[in-house]
Amino acid sequence: MSQPLTEAARRPLNIALAVGIADALLLVVLLYVAWVADNDAAVSVIGPIHGIGFLLLLYLTGKGAVEELWSWWFPAAVLVTGGPLGTIVGDLILRRRLPERDGAPA
């Protein structure tokens, strides 16, 4: 098993999770306006914003891997799953490796 993540990884992980949740909510809205509301004008606005969120997630998780806060499976999971799902699942996995704040072993 890998070593626990350091406290330094907590902030970048929090940022990636926040962007992942926001992008997941945006994806739900995008799917709604595309399939239910059938609003092409809204899709043409929301779609690129979701795409920027996806690229931001790739950047954040890739940067964390380059800084050796976590390994390369995390950005790969984001890439393969299309963004939010890989970020949220990866976050849950990585948080299990974070030491507790009170000094108790993880």
Strands, count: 0
* Arithmetic mean of pLDDT: 87
From the N-terminal CA to the C-terminal CA, the straight-line distance is 13 Å
- How many discrete structural domains? 1
SSE pattern, N- to C-terminal: HHHH
Instruction: State the helix count.
Output: 4
Globally, the shape reads: elongated
Uncertain residue segments: none
- The portion of residues forming beta strands comes to under 5%
Structural class: mainly alpha
Description:
The protein is mostly helical. It has one domain. Helices cover 71% and strands 0% of the residues. It is built from four helices and no strands. Helix 3 runs antiparallel to helix 4 (84-95). The protein is elongated and about 45 Å long.
Please supply descriptive tags for the structure shown above.
mainly alpha, 4 helices, 106 residues, 0% strand
Fold topology:
Layout: H1 10-36, H2 40-66, H3 73-81, H4 84-95
Helix pairs in contact: 1-2, 1-4, 2-3, 3-4
Write a compact overview of the structure shown:
The chain has one domain (9-95). It contains 4 helices and no strands. The chain has helices spanning 10-36, 40-66, 73-81, 84-95.
